[in-house]
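A.,

Following up on our hallway conversation. C-alpha cells first:
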C-alpha cells in the first residue's frame, strides 16, 4: 500500500525507508526517505472523517506557500509536493487522501515545554505567524472544520454525548462532567463578543499546540499542521498555544499531580507573542486575552470528554481511558489557571506596552 502511494508522487524513485512519525492526533503521518536523495519527506493520509474538504486545505496551504512564504521568511512552512499527475493531493480508489510535503531538515518536535527559552520561542513563532497573516482576507478562505472553536456548538456536542451515553462511560465520567458543566456559562461570554463583531475574524492557525511547531537547535523554526488555518480568532490561537506551552505536563499525563500552569512559561510566551502582534491587536482583543488560556483549555477538555463518552471516534487513542486522561489533565490545568487571571492580565498589559 505505502509503496504504491509513494509511487504516485515519485514514480522514478525507490523508497529507502518509510516509517510512522510524530504524535499528531488526527492524520496518519510517515517520514519518507528515498534512495539517492538527501532530503526527507512527510507523507500523510488526511483524516477525511475530520476534514471533509481536503482540497480546500491543500488550496489554503498553496495560497500561503505562494504568497507570504514565496520568499524566505524567519519562520518556515513545509512545502506541498505535487503528485506526478500535477495534483496537490492523491486520492486512492478507496477514497483515502494522501499528501506529500517536504520534511523540515534538522528539525525536531517538542511534546512539552521544559525550558523558558522554548516557551519564548513558541510565542515568537506563533506570534510571527499571526502577524504575517494579518492582511489576508478571512472571508476568502474556507473554514476547514465548521464551528471548530465555537463554544456553544462544542457544549451542544457534549450535551448530546451525555444524553446518548453511546459507550456506556457516563457513570465513570460523572465527576468530570459536573466540573465542566459548572463552568459553561463563563465561556459563552467571549463568543458573544465575537458574534457582535467586537473581536475581529482574522486568518489564524487554529491549532497552536506545541507539537505543531518545529524546533531547530535553540529556535522555533517552522509552523506546521496548516490544516486548520483559516478564519478564526487571534485570542483563541494565543490561549490554545498556552495550553501546551505553559503547562507542566503532557496532555496525556496519567499522574495528575504533575499537571499545572507554569507562570514563568506563560510570561515568556506572552512577552514574545505580544511583541510580534502588538501593532495589530484591537482594544477588545487586548481586554480578553487573559481569559483565553483557561477557555481554550476548557474547550479542549470538553472535546476530549465528548469523544470519551462517544467511544473514541475522533481522536487517536492508545489505551481504553486515553480520552478520560486527557480531559482530566485539562481539568487540572484549568484549576491551576483559575486563580491567576489578575496577574495574567498584568503580564499581557506589560507585554503590549509600546
Ligand atoms: P496531525 O494533524 O495528525 O497533528 P501534523 O501535520 O501535526 O499531523 O503532523 C504530525 C507530526 O509529524 C508533527 O507533530 C511533527 O512531529 C511531524 N511533522 C509533520 N510535518 C512535518 C514536517 N514537514 N517536517 C518535520 N516533521 C513534521
Ligand atoms: C488535535 O492534529 P493535532 O494533534 O495537532 C486537534 C486540536 C486539539 C489537539 C489536542 C483538527 O491537534 O484541535 O487541540 O488535537 N486538531 C483537530 O491535542 O481537531
Ligand atoms: Mg498536529
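Then the amino acids I'd put at each of the 354 positions:
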Amino acid at each position: 500500500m505505502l509503496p504504491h502511494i509513494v509511487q504516485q508522487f515519485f514514480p522514478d524513485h525507490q523508497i529507502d525507508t518509510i516509517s510512522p512519525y510524530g504524535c499528531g492526533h488526527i492524520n496518519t503521518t510517515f517520514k519518507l526517505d528515498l534512495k539517492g536523495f538527501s532530503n526527507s519527506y512527510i507523507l500523510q493520509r488526511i483524516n477525511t472523517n475530520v476534514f471533509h474538504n481536503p482540497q480546500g486545505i491543500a488550496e489554503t496551504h498553496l495560497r500561503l506557500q505562494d504568497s507570504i512564504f514565496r520568499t524566505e521568511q524567519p519562520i518556515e512552512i513545509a512545502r506541498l509536493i505535487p503528485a506526478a499527475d500535477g495534483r496537490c493531493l492523491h486520492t486512492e480508489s478507496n477514497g483515502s487522501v494522501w499528501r506529500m510535503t517536504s520534511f523540515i531538515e534538522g528539525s525536531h518536535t517538542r511534546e512539552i515545554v521544559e525550558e523558558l527559552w522554548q516557551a519564548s520561542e513558541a510565542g515568537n513563532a506563533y506570534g510571527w505567524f499571526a502577524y504575517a497573516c494579518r492582511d489576508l482576507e478571512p472571508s476568502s478562505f474556507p473554514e476547514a472544520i465548521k464551528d471548530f472553536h465555537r463554544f456553544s456548538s462544542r457544549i451542544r456536542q457534549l450535551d448530546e454525548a451525555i444524553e446518548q451515553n453511546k459507550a456506556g462511560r457516563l457513570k465513570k465520567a460523572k465527576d468530570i462532567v459536573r466540573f465542566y458543566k459548572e463552568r459553561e456559562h463563563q465561556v459563552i461570554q467571549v463568543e458573544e463578543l465575537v458574534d457582535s463583531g467586537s473581536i475581529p475574524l482574522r486568518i489564524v492557525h487554529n491549532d497552536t499546540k506545541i507539537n505543531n511547531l518545529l524546533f531547530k537547535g535553540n529556535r522555533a523554526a517552522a509552523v506546521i499542521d496548516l490544516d486548520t488555518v483559516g478564519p478564526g480568532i487571534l485570542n483563541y490561537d494565543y490561549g490554545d498555544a498556552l495550553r501546551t506551552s505553559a503547562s507542566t505536563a503532557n496532555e496525556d499525563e496519567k499522574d495528575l499531580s504533575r499537571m499545572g500552569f507554569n507562570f514563568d512559561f506563560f510570561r515568556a510566551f506572552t512577552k514574545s507573542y505580544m511583541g510580534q502582534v502588538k501593532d495589530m491587536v484591537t482594544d477588545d482583543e487586548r481586554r480578553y486575552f487573559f481569559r483565553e488560556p483557561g477557555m481554550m483549555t476548557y474547550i479542549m477538555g470538553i472535546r476530549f470528554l465528548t469523544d470519551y463518552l462517544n467511544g473514541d471516534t475522533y481522536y487517536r487513542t492508545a489505551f481504553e481511558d486515553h480520552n478520560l486522561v486527557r480531559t482530566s489533565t485539562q481539568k487540572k490545568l484549568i484549576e491551576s489557571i483559575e486563580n491567576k487571571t489578575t496577574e495574567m492580565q498584568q503580564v499581557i498589559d506589560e507585554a503590549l506596552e509600546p
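The longest strand covers residues 28-34. Curious whether your intuition agrees with the design.

B.
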